[in-house]
Each structure stands twice: as C-alpha cells, then as structure tokens.
Amino acid sequence: MAARKRASATTATPTETKPNPPLTQETTTQTDPPISPPKKGLIFKLCLFFSISYFYLLFQRYKIEQDLKRSILINAALSVAGFFLTQRMIPVASRYVLKRNLFGFDINKKGTPQGTVKVPESLGIVVGIVFLVLAILFQYFNFTADSNWLVEYNAALASICFMILLGFVDDVLDVPWRVKLLLPSIAALPLLMAYAGHTTIIIPKPLVSFVGLEVLDLGCVYKLYMGLLAVFCTNSINIHAGLNGLEVGQTVVIASAILIHNIMQIGASSDPEYKQAHAFSIYLVQPLLATSLALLSYNWYPSSVFVGDTYTYFAGMTMAVVGILGHYSETLLIFFLPQVLNFLLSLPQLSGYVKCPRHRLPRFNPETGLLTGTHDGTLVNFYLRIVGPKSEKSLCLHLLFVQALGCCFCFMLRYFLAGWYK
Amino acid sequence: MAARKRASATTATPTETKPNPPLTQETTTQTDPPISPPKKGLIFKLCLFFSISYFYLLFQRYKIEQDLKRSILINAALSVAGFFLTQRMIPVASRYVLKRNLFGFDINKKGTPQGTVKVPESLGIVVGIVFLVLAILFQYFNFTADSNWLVEYNAALASICFMILLGFVDDVLDVPWRVKLLLPSIAALPLLMAYAGHTTIIIPKPLVSFVGLEVLDLGCVYKLYMGLLAVFCTNSINIHAGLNGLEVGQTVVIASAILIHNIMQIGASSDPEYKQAHAFSIYLVQPLLATSLALLSYNWYPSSVFVGDTYTYFAGMTMAVVGILGHYSETLLIFFLPQVLNFLLSLPQLSGYVKCPRHRLPRFNPETGLLTGTHDGTLVNFYLRIVGPKSEKSLCLHLLFVQALGCCFCFMLRYFLAGWYK
C-alpha cells in the first residue's frame, strides 16, 4: 500500500491532458465477455487413456513398496485437486489479466471473426502458482528422513519458482531476448548446486576398447552440460509453439512419458536410491501434468486463453529439473526429439545468420481455413511443407502424435540398448 | 512465443471498433520522460555512517574466524556489485513498466505539478530479481560441507522467490486482499519445513518458580508462531507505508540493525552452530540492504519510482526468513516495534470493525505543502496527530528515526536482560 493512486490500465491514455470519465471495475468486467467453457470431453478422454496404463503399471505390472506407492498416491490426489483448482481459477484470472490489457489476438485466425477476439494472455501464471502450492504442501506428506531429499526438493522449487517469476516478468514487460537467454542459466544454478549425483558418463560397451575406459568422469563439464540442458528445455518449449494447444500439448505428452518411464524404472530396480530419484521426479511431474491438463482444456483449439512465456518457461524448467535430479537427462533429451529438431531448424534464424521475423508462423488462408508452411525454419513450417496445407487443429494433433512417436521410439531404444549401452 | 499478436498497453482501448493509429515503441519511449537521477548524496552518507560501525565490529571489536570473515566479505563484495546493478537497472525497468501502464500518481502531492507526474510502479521487481541472482551466485562461494546449510538456504530462496512472484502478480493484477493474506502463509511453508532449530521457549528466570519449568517445548505451536511471524512481517511492512521512502527506509533501518546484531552475536559466541546461524542471516541481509539502498536512492522524497507490493512482500519475507532460520525471531519482533504498533492501530479498520477506506493517508494541503493526520488508524496519522502538521520528507525522517530508536531500545534490552532472561 504505497502513496499512490494506481492507474487503471483501461482508463489510462497516452495523453494526460484530457482525462477520460473513469470506468468502474464493474463496467470493465461487463465489457470483457467470459471465456469459453473448458473442453472437458478432450481432457476426460486423455485422462482415461493415460490413467489406465499408468495405474496398471503402478498397481499390477510391478511390485512397488507400500510406502512409495502411498506417497505417489497422496501426490496424485493432491494433483487431482490441483487440476480442479486450476480449472476454476483460469476464468477468474482471465478477467484480471484482461483488465490489465494482457491479451493478444490469434494470428492464425486473422481475417475471421475469431481473429478479432481479445484472448487473455499469460494464463501460465495460474498453473505455475497452483503447481508451487501443491509442491510446497506435498512436503508435509513425504516423510523421508533423508535430508538430501529436502536439499534437492527445495533447490528444485527455488529454480522452478525463479523461472516462473522471470517468465511472468517477461510476459508483462517484454524483456529483450538477450536477457531472456541469460536468466534461465542463473535460475538453474540452485539446481546444479544441489545435484549430488554422478558427473560421469558410461562409455558404450563397444567403444570401451577404443576409449580405454568404462566410465569417464566429466566433472565440471557435466555440470555445464546440465546447465545448458536447463536453458535448452526452457527455450525449446518456448520456440516450438504458435498453434493453439501446442505448448501445453507437448508438455502433456512429454510429462506422461516421463511418468511412465519413472514407474518402469522404479519397478525394474532394487536400488533404493535409484527408486528415490525416480519417485522425486514423479512428485513434481504429476502436479505438472494435472495442472497442464486443466490449462489445455482452455487452450485447446479454438483457444480461449493463451499460456504466455510464463507457462513455457515453467514447464521446460520443471522437466529439466526432474531430468537432472532424477538422473535421466539422456532419456529426457530423447523425449525432447521434436524440440531438438525444431531448435536445429531454428538455429540459422536464431543466430542471426538468416533474417528472423517477429513471428515465424505458417501462412493462414481465411477462405480455406488452412495453414501453409512458410520458409521460416521451424518444425511447424517444415512439417507443413512436407504434408501440405492443414487446419490448425489437425496440424497440432499431427505434431503431438509425432511427439508421442518420439517418446515411443525412446522406450524402444532403451529396451533394445539395455545391456549394450550400459 | 505463442500464436498471438501481443497487445501493446498503450495502444489498447476499451472500445475495439475505433482503432487508434498504432504508437510504435519508439514514440512511446519518447513520451515517457526519463526518471530523475538517484539521490547519491543521501546514499553515500548512509553507507558511510553504517559501514564504519559495521566494519569496526567485524574487524576490530570482535575476533572472528578468517573463514567466516572471508565468506562475509565475499558476500559484501557481491552486494556492492548488486547495488550498482540495481541502480543501473531501475531507470531501464522504469521505461518497461511505464510502457505497460504500471504507474501511479503521488497522492501526497495532489494539487501540485508533481502530483500529475506518472510515477513508474513496482520497481521492487528489480530489487527482487537482483537479490535472487546474488543469493544464488553466492552459493558457489560458501564452501560449507554441511548439507543442512543448503537445505535451509534453498528453502529460504524458495520462500523469498515465491513471495516476490506473488507480490509482482499482485501489483500487476490487483489480487483481492483475502487471497493476499493466504499466500504468504503458503510461501512460508518451505521455510518451516527446513527449520531444524529448537521449538522451545526459555522461561524467564524470575518466572521459573511459578511455571515449574526452565524450558517449555511448544512443538507445533512454535512452528505456527513462526508461520504467523512470516505473515506478519510481509504484511506489516506493506501497511506501514504511504510516504516517499518509508517502505524502503524502514527496511534499510531494520536490515542495518539485523546486521549489527548478527556480528555482535557471532563475536560474543563460541558455539559454531550459533555462529553459522547468524552468518546465514548476514548472507541474505547484506544483499537485501545493498539492493534496497539502490532503490531508496530513487524512492527517497521526491520519489521518482514507487516500490509496489513486490518490494514490501519481498523485504518482509526476507527478514522473516533470516529471523526464523537465524533463530532470533524474538529480537526481530522488537526491531519491528513501530510495525507492531501500526498493526495494532490498524486492527479496527483491517478487521472491518471500523470502516476502512482504500487509502489511509494523511491529508495534504497543497498551499502549505504540509500533511495533517486523519482519524484513520495508522502510525503515520497517529504520529502526525501528536506532533502536528509536517512536510512529507520531514515526517518520513521522523518515522525512520523512531524506527532506529526502537532498534537501539532492542539492543539495550538485550544488554540489560542478558543473564536475567536467559
């Protein structure tokens, strides 16, 4: 409460001399129509499909200790509560962000009536805050005497929270991209400090005779690699975007794959520390998946809210955190295959070698309602150039399917390489 | 990067049908005049006065181990760098927040030309982010093998970061006060989880015969008290406000007192754990003090920037964190005496028993330039009713002097009660 009359965003005008009649909060709220209801059907189908395979693995396929199972289930219950809370909060937060003029117009619908609707922006902030609340509350339910657990957990929370803060600041203030690039690397530091795992890589067995070593300790170089991984994850989700539901959709697919990977690793191992590392990952990814699904129900085509950099940074950092502290960063990178490809395609433009426009979106034809690939170097455009014009919804589904295929490929690779690689 | 054309705050109008000619970024920047330069003289005098006594205690008065002294000095050097970085970033950030219509008008200057100037709001975000970066980087320089240190440090970072995030969200979106009250208690949870200290209180010696115990273990009640302390600190700095420089000024005074208290405790003790707890507190308070001083140089009368709830929440939470994890919460509460008084005076209005207006500021007379106390229950008004009308600058100085007197009273109390109380 400072000595200032706060300027309402809606009443403020660039010219100070001619004051507008003040709009009260009520009239502002009335002029902003409520957002469309969530797409419950889509979410229900997604949840059903995923839950069956996930809980089959958890309860039937593997013998997992009661204690661990109990913690996972408490976390799952909290996550379900988080899903409903997020779904409830998004329309409320939408009114607040619209009041502050945080909105955008959907470029992929330009020329149609939908292209003139103000879509509230940065709704990732709701997901981020609910996630943090869940993650903090969960600490009470995980009675691990191991203080190392708390070090890593709090370092993870600090990194994720800092990333959400920077994402939201970016959404509100439009930070220059050089600063953007710098900040995730700083936000990742608490994480690297808390990383107590190995800094070694295992030389694939066929190469041992050439290298002369079975295990190579990379020391600081390994920590640098992890820092770069965090920077890569946050930015790669942010640049593989531009279609309704793509940012959240890719997160949902990767998070689901991570959860299944974790359960499989817990089930297949007998090392308590290894299990704990994967359980740690579950405790953070379940809330991420649940809150993301709630956001997806509003962000799916046609989007009634936009997610903002807040969401992409948050989701990327959370997955980087679990990959690093769960000690499976190589697997994570294979789950991120489409993002790696998109990054490589983007490199000439991002590095400034080729001219980089403000948006690198496909061309939308309002008459046919189809998107055509441009020559900008993104996976979205590349895919469109291969398969020909597509509607936004169908293109997003295709790309998510590609993402899911990538994850399946990773599972297969792990299955076939087991024994050969490690 | 989402599929949206971001709405520029300056071009957006409530009526969609009549589009304004778009203002480019350049013209917007030109219409916002640069903020006044920082008041370097004031800061220099403050720093000189404080540094002499602080470094005298650190180097001369007490024998402190080289290792500890080295860590404190590295932290101090980082803090000085943080001071200059913050001072450099504030004008840059001011342009960004003005572009987003995050500004206010100074109510205490209403009726004068200064009252019509757009003052950029929420500059606490710069202080918060620089603080986090310093606190994260410092981890590299504190080579304590004790993993408990990292648990507490990361829990502190998580709590402070969450509080900055919520403060900034509040500044941007104007969150309802019921939500505001709830969130600091959740942000404080990582802190309480990491608190590994005692949950006992020592019964003052003269009362031991009545109570029948020398030490009383409060268990959960003690943790509840600490949680409430965090809620109190964040909100009490936020409501003891309304004058240029008061929010930052009170933080500077309390932070200085905390630092001196820490050095005295380290110097007087021989228990390594006790020293470590107070060193921990120094590592977080030095950056707080340095970055706050940089903000004060712009926020001092006449303010060229406002600090926002971001700053008050951040400063309050940081001090609560160090009080709790440094195990000197009772002393902290005495440093907060004016805030306690302000809270008690505010209670009838905050609880809704007496009508509570949006602002509870003194009445400003544009002809005399003086402030007169109203009947609203705040310390600012109460003080004005006692001493009569005052100018804003002189009133702020008086109140900060009262704050400093409170801190001196605390030092005296500790000195005289030593041996009697504990």
From TrEMBL, chains A, B:
Polar residues bias (residue ranges): 23-33
Main localization category: endoplasmic reticulum
Disordered: annotated span: 1-36
A Pfam family reported for this protein in Swiss-Prot or TrEMBL: Glycos_transf_4
Transmembrane spans: 42-59, 71-90, 123-143, 150-169, 181-203, 224-243, 249-268, 280-301, 313-337, 395-417
Its membrane topology: Multi-pass membrane protein
Keywords: Endoplasmic reticulum, Glycosyltransferase, Magnesium, Membrane, Metal-binding, Transferase, Transmembrane, Transmembrane helix
Alphabetical GO biological process terms: dolichol-linked oligosaccharide biosynthetic process
Catalytic activity: a di-trans,poly-cis-dolichyl phosphate + UDP-N-acetyl-alpha-D-glucosamine = an N-acetyl-alpha-D-glucosaminyl-diphospho-di-trans,poly-cis-dolichol + UMP
Gene Ontology, cellular component aspect: endoplasmic reticulum membrane; membrane
UniProt pathway: Protein modification; protein glycosylation
PANTHER family the record matches: UDP-N-ACETYLGLUCOSAMINE--DOLICHYL-PHOSPHATE N-ACETYLGLUCOSAMINEPHOSPHOTRANSFERASE
Protein family according to the UniProt entry: Belongs to the glycosyltransferase 4 family.
Name of the protein described by the UniProt record: UDP-N-acetylglucosamine--dolichyl-phosphate N-acetylglucosaminephosphotransferase
